[in-house]
Amino acid sequence: MSVLQQPMVHGVIAARVVNLSNLRNVSRGRCISRIVRTMTKSNTKNHEGAVNTPRLPPEIAPYKSCTGRIQSTTALVERPPSCQDLSLPEKINISFAGCGFLAVYHLGVAKGLLTHGQHVVSKVNRWGGASAGAIAAAAIVCMPNKLGDAVQMLRDFVDVVQKRPLGALTPGFDVLSYLRGELQRYVPAGSYRLASQKLYVSVTRVSDGKNVLLTDFRSDEELIEALLCSCYIPVYCGFRVPTFRGQKYIDGGMTVNMPIYPDGRTLCVSPFSGHLQDICPADKSWLSLSYVVAGHSFRVCSQNIWRAMVALFAPSHETLSEYLDRGVGDAITFLQENRLLEERIKRES
């Protein structure tokens, strides 16, 4: 579920493209870029139950997509320079990017992992994300056996928005109030106990513009408040800024759209193709160029431009179903490429 967060239009840029070279090879699709990415670590807790994510200077290390989808992009990132063997006994974290209505893709990925990679899911130490990604992560943590309810909640939201003449921007339509009601309806009682120290919700603190990860919840209402804070886009979602324990927070995707954790291996998931994602659509384009916004990479291609429109404006149910299935397929592809697909599935295929 989402409140139409679209990271491509965020005004806060967490990294910039520099040192663009070899432009003479553009016609042959060999444009190479160097990208500087500002990463964050979650290592301190404050009295509000939030984990601070201070900005850190990036380490210079080459990075190649674990799936080998974009070979020509070199990045300066604070991540392992090569793929790790996920079969080893180590902590795994999963981070979902904010992506508006395309959050259905995350639910598809979760379905694929739960069905065909349970041994991987069992090692997950943290689930997290920003905005729509945070709600998808919450659904997996709090109701893993009822992901169909989360999909239905998104479908209902699409129907409600499409009935408005200006969609979510229709005067008098309170997106957060509607979303609050849906979360109160679908979130099982006592979910805050499952979510505490397991779910990490990326938000941006209004007072200083810093990113924090909310992970300590004392009630179901606090859990819902954290999710609403992460989903709030100023103006787009109205003018009343939501709060968590008295502090005002807004969309976490404005500062860190795809949280990376300091310990263990973080798997990044996004319906937008990009070189920093571990699970994402494998788009083909003659121009191998990506750029990074708030820690989330976007490949320059027509498919991503179309997805930006889908994420912002309510798509058809057919499109939702398409991206749900695509999420399942991309999760299985990731497991296959990393030799993690369960033997039962291998025999069936």
TrEMBL record:
Protein name per Swiss-Prot or TrEMBL: Patatin-like phospholipase domain-containing protein 4
Q: Where is this motif: GXSXG?
A: 129-133
**What PANTHER family does its record include?**
CALCIUM-INDEPENDENT PHOSPHOLIPASE A2 IPLA2 -RELATED, PATATIN-LIKE PHOSPHOLIPASE DOMAIN-CONTAINING PROTEIN 4
Q: Which GO terms describe its biological process?
A: lipid homeostasis; triglyceride catabolic process
- Quote the catalytic residue positions: S131, D251
GO CC field: cytoplasm; lipid droplet; membrane
The molecular function terms in GO held by this entry are: triacylglycerol lipase activity
The record places domain PNPLA at: 94-264
Keywords associated with the record: Hydrolase, Lipid degradation, Lipid metabolism
Q: Look up keyword Aminoacyl-tRNA synthetase and say if it applies.
A: no
Q: Which domain of life is it from?
A: Eukaryota
One family name in Pfam for this protein = Patatin
Please indicate the residue ranges that the annotation assigns to the motif DGA/G.
251-253
Q: Please name the PROSITE patterns in this protein's record.
A: PNPLA (PS51635)
